[in-house]
Specification:
By secondary structure, the protein is mostly beta strands. It has one helix and 22 strands. Strands 3, 4, 5, 6, 7, 8, 9, 10, 11, 12 and 13 form an eleven-stranded antiparallel β-sheet that branches. A hairpin with a 4-residue loop joins strand 4 and strand 5. The termini are far apart. This is DUF7065 domain-containing protein. Pfam families: DUF7065.
């Protein structure tokens, strides 16, 4: 298959490692996320590879309102500094910490296993086409463009099924799920705050929208700001479109700056209006990359007469977050 949106074309080759520059922080990353709204629980599988460093990072995180950090959440087994396995590919590897990922079908079917501080057996199967965000447009300062090498990002919704055993309890998973894939140098040397809002009620109704602050960290007030949409996609009753404009706003943040209430107003290339409102289910504070303060807030979203689980993912430059947190 081949999909072209936002001035970049993706095909099955993008499910593998790319030709890369010599930049030490060349990054090939992916994550799978699923929210269980009735349990107020989120499950994340996140991993990235940096071939020029011979480095892999990855693992599993499970959280609910009972804990919001890697030290007190339901389950956390993630390592930041592992050797890139010999012969590894983007979605075909086994890490030393027990995480293994296998691609059965590009864009279609993935098998995820983990054995360690928690046990995970999951299958992800396609619900929607992938949507390409292009050359990480709007992410100035997060990624570095290098002439002659692609630098891209796409997302796709599927259905996650299987089990996760954590804290002596086995969670049965059968929910819509997002997966995200990106590549290119990732150094975050001059980043601005971002918000990613997503929800999948079914294969016929879903959205994912990313906003990026138009102000630098020293001028960005963070609280109550109407941020312009950088890119995204939207599907209503089986008709999908690309988001062409709109605003995202976090109406209320917790003491850790995570989203408690949020709203999204956007328009797509079919002329349709998306109005969505979200309320918090949980939060995990997670420093996945250097120089960043990341907040993964599970959300209950309402849009187009539907209610389903999703997320409001906030990411701030570390020094901006430090100043705000210390001022509280």
């Amino acid at each position: 298959m081949s999909v072209e949106t936002h001035a970049i074309q993706i095909d099955a080759a993008d499910e593998h490692f790319h030709a890369r520059s010599a930049h030490p922080h060349w990054n090939e990353s992916a994550w799978f996320g699923v929210v269980l709204p009735e349990r107020r629980t989120t499950i994340y599988v996140y991993f990235f590879h940096r071939p020029n460093m011979n480095l892999s990072s990855g693992g599993v995180k499970v959280w609910d309102p009972s804990g919001s950090s890697e030290y007190d959440c339901l389950g956390y087994d993630y390592n930041r500094h592992l050797a890139l396995p010999a012969g590894a590919d983007m979605f075909d590897f086994t890490l030393e910490n027990g995480l293994s990922v296998e691609m059965i079908e590009p864009f279609g079917h993935f098998r995820i296993r983990h054995r360690g501080a928690l046990d995970l057996d999951l299958e992800w199967r396609r619900l929607t086409d992938p949507f390409a965000f292009g050359q990480n447009q709007g992410l100035d300062g997060w990624t570095t463009a290098e002439e002659g090498f692609t630098n891209g990002h796409y997302q796709q919704f599927g259905r996650m099924t299987g089990t996760v055993t954590v804290g002596g309890e086995t969670l049965v998973v059968d929910q819509p799920s997002i997966r995200d894939r990106s590549w290119g140098p990732r150094d975050a040397v001059a980043a601005r705050r971002m918000e990613l809002m997503w929800c999948c009620a079914s294969e016929r109704n879903y959205f994912s929208v990313l906003s990026v602050s138009t102000q630098g960290p020293e001028r960005d007030p963070v609280l109550g700001v109407q941020d312009s949409v950088a890119f995204g996609f939207y599907c209503r009753d089986g008709q999908s479109g690309l988001v062409t404009g709109g605003t995202c706003r976090v109406l209320e943040r917790g003491p850790d700056l995570s989203a408690r209430r949020a709203e999204l107003h956007a328009v797509d290339d079919r002329g349709r209006v998306l109005d969505a409102a979200g309320t918090s289910l949980n939060t995990l504070v997670w420093p996945v990359y250097d120089r960043t303060y990341q907040l993964c807030a599970g959300m209950r979203w309402s849009f187009d007469g539907l209610t389903a689980g999703g997320e409001d993912w906030s990411c701030l430059p570390t020094e901006q977050a430090r100043a705000l947190l210390r001022a509280r």
